[in-house]
Every structure is written in C-alpha cells, then in structure tokens.
Amino acid sequence: MRNHQTTEDIALGIRRRVFEHAMRNNGGYLSQACSAAEQLAWLYNEELNLGAPTLPMIPKPFGGVPHADNPDYHTGAGYNGPFEPDLDRLFIAPAHYALVAYATLVETGRMAAEGLEMFNQDGSSVEMIGAEHSPGMEVHNGTLGIGLSTAAGLAWGRRRRGESGRVWVFMSDGEVQEGQTWEAIQACAHHRIDNVLAIMDVNNQQCDGAMDSVMEVGDIKTKMEAFGAVAVEIDGHDLDAMREAVKTPHEGKPLIILAQTNPFHTMPILEERFPRLHYVRFKSEEERARMNTSIAQSLGVDPIDYAH
Amino acid sequence: MVDMVNRPYERAFEQHALANPDVLCISADLTSSCEIDKFRDNHPDQFLSMGMAEQNMMSFCGGLGLAGFRPFVHTFGVFTYRRPYDQLMASIAYPRRKVRIMGFLPGITTPGGMTHQAIEDIAVMRSMPNMTILETGDATEVESICAAADSIDGPVYCRVLRGSVPRLFDTPIKVGEMREISLGDDVLIVTAGITTEEAMRATRALEAAGVSVRHLHLHTIKPFDAGALLDHIGAVRGGVITLENHVTEGGIGSLVAEVMADNGIGKKLRRLGLKDTYAHGGSRAYLMRYYGLDALALTRGVEDLLGQPLGITEEDLAQARVEAVHSLAKAEGL
Questions:
Q1: Model pTM score
Q2: Closest chain B C-alpha to A161 CA, distance in angstroms
Q3: CB-hemisphere CA count at 13 Å for A136?
C-alpha cells in the first residue's frame, strides 16, 4: 500500500506530530523523532509490502492481556495489515519509539490522528512503551534486545512454510549492548536466515546519555559482520542511501542497515539538552516556550497553543 | 520389583514429533543429554540447534510460535528460566506461545551442583501468568509428557526424567488430574516427580507401623484442581505432609498450603523439601538423604505430624519394595 505523500513529507509530518504532542504534554520522545523519522517513513511508505489495516482507524481501548479467559484478545499488528504469505511483518524492537511509530501510522493513513491523543492515557491501548496490543505492534519489545531474535524465529518459520514475505525489524543502537543481539545474529547466520532485515537507528544515545559515556560498543558494523550479518552503514537522514542499501546482496545472512543519525536533526535547539535526550521533559515554562518557538520555526509550523 | 525403563523420552518424543509436523525439536547444546541425539541424526529437518544461547533461543521460539510452529525446547531445566527469564516472560509466557519447555534434571537429580540443579523452577513458573506446569514421576509419565504438553493452548514447562526411569503407573498423564495412589485416612501425603517413589516406599513401612496413608501424586502442578485436593484433605484425620524435589517455598508444599489457607482448613501441614538452601553435587541417593528428601525423611515427617514415634528404621525402608506397576493396578484404579 503506497501513500500519496512523498516519504520526505511523511518524515516531516512525523516530526510535526511528535513535536505537537511533546509540547501539549510538557515533554516526550522528541529526539527519537529527530533521528528515526526518515527510517520509519521509508519503511512504511516505500519498503514494506503491507496490506490495508484490519483494525479500526480509531484504536479500541485496552482489551485485556493475553489469557485463556480473554479469547477476543488481539495484537496491534492489524494496523500493519493482514498476515498473508507474501506480505512483510515489522517489529519495532525499541518500543520506546512508540510515539514516533504511532505518528508514522497517522501520517501513512493507517491510524486516525485521534489515536495519538490516546497516547499514555489510562485505559488506552496506545501505550507509552508500545505493547503487543498497541497500534502497529505485534510483540512486546519494551525489554530491549529481544526483537531481532523473535524476528529470526518468525523468519525461519515463514521460510519453512514457503512464504515470500520478509520480517523487518526497526532497531536501536543501544540494543547492541545486550548480548542477545549478538546471539540473534549468530543464529541467523548459522541457520542462513536471510529473510530477516533490520534498520538500526544509530543515534549514539541511550537513556543515561551518550553511548560512549555509558558503555562503549566499538565498531558496530565490524562486529556485526564478524557475527555473520551483512551490515551497511548509511546516513540515516538520506532516503536515497536507504533505497540503495536495501539492494545489498545478503544471501544466507540477515541484512542490517546502520542508519547513522543526528538526535537533534531538524530540531537543533534540542542540542541544549545533550546528552540527556532519551526523554525530553521541559524544565521550566520558559524553556518550554523557547523550544516551542524554535522547533515550530524549524519544522515550518506555528507554535503549539498548548495552554488550550 | 519395579520395572526400570531405559530412555523413555527418546522414543516418546520421536513418536510424537513424527506424527506432528509442526512440532520442532530445539536443542541448546545438550542434545545427547536430553536424549534427542538420535532424533537429530534421523530427522535433521525437524531439528534446530540453537547453541549455548538461551536468551536468543527463547525469543526465537516465540517467533517460531508466531509462525504456527510448536517448538519443544530441550535443555536442563535450570537453563530454561534462570538466564533467559526476561525472554521467557516477554517472548513466550505473555503472548501464550505454544512452546513446550522440556526441563531435564529437575531438582537434585544431577550431581552438577548449584548451577545445574533446578530447585526453584516450579516457584518461578507458578508465578508466571499463562504458564502451565507438568512434572513427570515415572516412565509412563515421561512417555506421555509430549502429548500432554502439546495439548496445552499456551506455553508449558515440564520437569522431565531421563535415563533409567522406574515405571510406577500404567496410565498416561491426564492434564488437570492427580493420581490417587492410596486412600487411607490417617495422613495425606502429597508428592510429585521422584519423591513419589520414595513415598510409595514409605507408605509400605507406615502401613506396617499402623498408619493409614492417603497418597496423591501430582503431575499437573498448574493449573491445579483445588477441589479434589480439599476432598482428600477432608478424608484424613491426622494432617497433610508434602515432599518435593524443590525448595519448600513456591512448590507443591506452598501450593497445598495456599489451598488449605484459602479454604480455612485448620489441619496440620508439614512441608518437606529443600529448606531455604542450595544443594551441592553428589549422587541422587546421597543428596536425597543429605537434604531430607527420601522415604526416611518422610517417615520422620509423619512421626512429627502425628506426634508419635513409629519406630521405622532404615532397614524397614530398605525392605519396603515398590512393586512392579501391575501389582499396583488396583491402587491406580481406585
């Protein structure tokens, strides 16, 4: 399903929606929109082969967790379309990017804008850390580092069933600190699982701050190749680079695109908050107002009237 | 004497897997230790080696479940939940994937010491929403564990016995039920896994000493039929005693205690098992004696429960033979 907007427009729209949301709620995952908007816009608008959504445009309220006594339970995967052999699947491995992912669903016509208003509201399925039942999510990934393994298992299973659809993972660079990420890559290589593909937002940021100050991870590309992946480094704000990178041959190996990004791309004023960018909560009304004016100008919109 | 069956899991798994093409054999570098080496050699297309990487294995199996497969995870029980607890929770238990976790070497059935002895696995799994727990106590239960586990609509953790396993029963596991081994009216003994054979030996000596024993064997630990247990507790005069190859916190002793407390049962309860302690490496018989998990410990526990010495000696117990299964057919049929 292709959207009529350009991918550039969608990336801008994602940032505008996340900005508006952060202003109205006195904070949010702004930096993730800066770094990842192009990647998610490209996946949804160009690269993923998805069907039309199967769930209502306005998300249903929280319907309970999986349980034997909850037969009507379903995940939020329906926002990515139905499960068909030829269609792709997507896992958002760092579920902390949920706000950005939801904004992407809105921009690509898969969820109504009202869905974003439900973000982090009690009783809503549009949870702050994307849950299985949240729009666009299929598995719980709030515990970081498990997404690629799950995708690898699903990809192995889909290949065995003769399905042509791929399994895509949106990853974050902090996940390479988890040993499981490396276990997953070696398992993909050992079992020649090449229908799993990932794009990683390499923004060099994590909760405590700049990754190098928290735990140095060295050269991710070299390490991934040593563990058996094909890794391609690109400028994560360059859509043409993504379009080229995905063509890289990777027979018998997973393809991981390392999207080098800037955590304040298009919102330069956020650099004031470096290195604590994981969740930007405004420290004062003065800061909130100043960021409102500056980011609105950067994104080409009017400042948000958050008092109303 | 009781019949011993060699490697019952090996045959049972092969039979089940070949009849169910969506069953996959998953191994974590303990393939021969879990009796699936012949399966690997004979049916490589249905076998996946995941290496010594349990965290990935658990999430990977969650993904296989998402694709409609029913992975049987084979490794030592302790490796299925200590290291990959987070993955077990998020990738398997929460989404109710049909992953069948075959945990070998339950409790002190290994000389491997602390790192290899799953002594708190039942406590961990009981506290995990959506998880079913089965435990095998004899060869017949091992032979029926694959079908029983695979009948569950969700994840299952199984304590599986390997190697030479006694045959105590002649009917397969019926998930959700419990076995009534004897139906006396002085004390109720509740056991699971390898402690059941000990209790059967102790029962002979206790009966000889004039104690009427009611003995239940649990193969289904979660979900649990509290109503049936309550009926049995109501049928004895002298109280309840549990014996488990597990710590006494969170296992079947706790399970019985919870049922009694929840229902206001004022009878005495003695919980035997590992008492807030790790075990160490040694033979099964040595460890069962050292940690008080054997027939002698059980008879001492019954003396304590009844408040009277019974004069049962080690020699009495050594002579108390557990007979071959068919001589127990009547008890089984009660």
A1: 0.96
A2: 9
A3: 35
